[in-house]
Amino acid sequence: MPELPEVETVRRGLAELLPGKTIQQVNYDWPSSFPNEEAAVNRFLRGATITNVRRRAKVILLDLSSKYSLVIHLKMTGQLVYVEAPAQGASVRFGAGHPTGSLVGHLPDKSTRVTLQFSKRAGTLFFNDQRKFGWMKLLPTPEVFSIDFFKAIGPEPLDPSFTAEQFRQRFMRRQNTSIKAALIDQSVVAGIGNIYADESLWGAQIHPATLVRQLTSADLNTLFAELRFILHKAVEAGGSTDKNYVNVRGGVGSYLTFARVFRREGQPCFRCGQPIQKVRVAGRGTHVCSNCQKVTP
DNA sequence: CACTTGACCTGTCCGC
DNA sequence: TGCGGACAGGTCAAGT
User: Fold this and answer.
1) Of A41, A159, A189, A259, which one is least surrounded by beta carbons within 10 A?
2) What confidence score (pLDDT) does residue A117 get?
3) Would you call A151 a catalytic residue per the annotation?
4) Is A2 a catalytic residue?
C-alpha cells in the first residue's frame, strides 16, 4: 500500500529525525524481513551514524557513516515508526490525525520485525510489517542502485526534468496491455500503485482497461498531468491511510478524504453523479466511473 | 520478448 | 460461535 506519496512522507519524517543519530542496538526476528549476515550487521550497522535519508521509487535509503546503506522496502504493510524512548517499549498514538480518532498502541508489538535503538537515549525506530513482505537490506552505499530491484525501475514521476514526451515514450513497449497494468509497472514509471493509478485515470477520464495502443498522445499527455497533480496532492496530504499505513509518528495520511474513486464504490461520481464501480483490471481491485471513463474505441 | 498468473504472508470479512 | 475461503496488492519467479 505504501506508494510514492506514502514513502516520501516517511522519508521526510525520517530526514528530520535520524541524521546524526548513532545505532547502538539492532534486534530482528524474521529472516526475510532482515536478510543480512550477522557479521555485516556488527561491522556496518551497529555503531554506525545515519548521515542521510533518501528515496528512490518506493524504497527508502538510510545512508550510514560506515559507507553502507540500509535499503528499506515497506511493500504492503510495512511501517517505520519512531519513538523517543528506549527499545523496551513505548506508547504510540496510532491513527493520530484521523477524523474517527486515534488508538494508543505499544511498540514493539507482534508485527515488529526489526528494532534500531539509538545511542545516548536518542530514541528507537521500529520496522513493523504484518504480512512480512517488506525488507531491510544492508548494502555498500556505492552499490545500492546496482541491485536487481533498481535495474528495472523507471524514472521518478515528480522529477521536474521528466517530460510528457518521455512519459509517452515509456509506454511504447507496453502497447498490448491495459493502461492500468502499464501504470503500475515500476519499469515504466516509478512509484505508482493501485490507489494513484485509479485516481489519475479518473482524472484523465480514461477507463483502466483501455489498451495502451488505443490511447492518443493527447490522452497520455492528460494522464501525465493528472498523475503529477494527484501525486503532488497526495504528498501534500501526507499520503493515504487505507488500512496499515502510518507515518513515522504513527499518524495517518489524509489523501483519501480527497479521493475521487478509490474506496468510493457505490458513491456518486463527482463529475457525473453515476455510482463508482469496483471491477477487476490487471489482477487488481479497480475503481472506475464507467459512465465518464470511456474505453477509447 | 510481451504478458499473465501464482507465491510470498497475515488479518479481516463474509457466508454457511 | 466457528470455520473455510476470498480478498487485500508490491514484487519476483515461473508460466503461456
Assistant:
1) A159
2) 95
3) no
4) yes
Alpha-carbon dihedral angle through residues A96, A99, A104, A107, given to the nearest 10 degrees: -50
Q: Cell 515500476, residue? A: A186
Across chain A, mean pLDDT equals 91
Within its chain, how far is the Cα of A106 from the centroid?
Answer: 24
C1' nearest to CA of A195: which nucleotide? C9
A176 vs A17, which has greater pLDDT?
A: A17
Check pLDDT > 90 for residue A45.
yes
Cell of A157: 514521476
- Of A24, A222, A219, the C-alpha closest to A119 is A24
Is strand B within 7 Å of residue A179 (CB)?
Answer: no
Taking chain A, what is the end-to-end CA distance rounded to the nearest angstrom? Answer: 32
The active-site residue, picked from A2, A5, A108, A208, is A2
pTM over 0.90, yes/no: yes
The per-residue pLDDT for A7 is 95
Q: A206: which DSSP letter?
A: B
If residue A205 lies in a helix (H) or strand (E), which one and from where to where? none
**Active-site pick, A75, A137, A271, A284:** A284
